[in-house]
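note to self: dont lose this again. the chain is below, predicted strucutre after it. 108 aa total, dont forget to put it in the shared folder this time
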Amino acid sequence: MITITDAKPQLSLEEFSELPETKPSSEYLNGKIEQKPMAQGQHSVLQGRLVTVINEVMLPKKLGHAFPELRCNFGGLSIVPDISIFTWDRTPQTAQRKIANRFNLHPD
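---
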């Protein structure tokens, strides 16, 4: 007896990472791509204010950094949280000591 299934092969994280970015952002969760809902006005205002306030406290003391809509790849996932916070020593940097473009670790 032959069994036919409709199961599609899952996309790997590496394959997902090669796809072009979408607007709104897509996330890679459990082998599936899910598009985030588009943020609306009140959400955007709150997100912007929170990132600003968090960074006003954290950056001068070199405690950490808050990022809006930053793609984070870790543990086989690729997510784009509304706000990601990284401690100062875990914020990826380039050789020139600038903030890196790719964050292959989870937020704090």
